[in-house]
């Protein structure tokens, strides 16, 4: 079996939030909120690619697969859910829409 070149660990972090890959929880300080599977996968992709924008096609390809009927508005719905959960834990981290391109994580000041 091939080993991954780098081990990213079970907790990903960006700015003031963390994502626990074992419990599917979004964490800020002592506040935690459970994410659904698709929400988790979208947040994981955003955190693993922080500083880069991810287009909607890439989300669909990686999360739903090539043979899916999922459309771009499906991504928009899940991003909306994630934004509400970021707000619920009091995060300053935001998901920024980049018109015509996709999404990226930013600090609240960006």
Summarize the structure.
With 110 residues, the chain is α+β, with helices and mostly antiparallel strands.
Q: What report would you give on this structure?
A:
This protein is of the alpha+beta class and 110 residues long. Helix content is 35%, strand content 24%. The chain has one domain (11-106): Arc Repressor Mutant, subunit A, CATH 1.10.10. It is built from three helices and six strands, in the order ββββαααββ. Strands 1-2-3-4 form a four-stranded antiparallel beta sheet, covered by helices on one side. It has a two-stranded antiparallel sheet with strand order 5-6. Helix 1 (37-48) crosses helix 3. The chain is globular. It starts with 10 loop residues before the first strand and ends with a strand. The model is unreliable at 1-6 (pLDDT under 50).
Strand order in the sheet with the most strands? 1-2-3-4
CATH class: Mainly Alpha
**In sequence order, what are the helices and strands, one letter per element?**
EEEEHHHEE
Number of strands: 6
Question: Approximately how much beta-strand content do the residues carry?
Answer: 15-25%
Oligomeric nature of the chains: single chain
What is the helix fraction of residues, given as a range? Answer: 25-40%
Largest sheet, strands/sense/barrel? 4 strands, antiparallel
Notable characteristics:
single chain, 110 residues, alpha+beta, Arc Repressor Mutant, subunit A, 4-stranded antiparallel sheet, 6 strands, globular, disordered N terminus
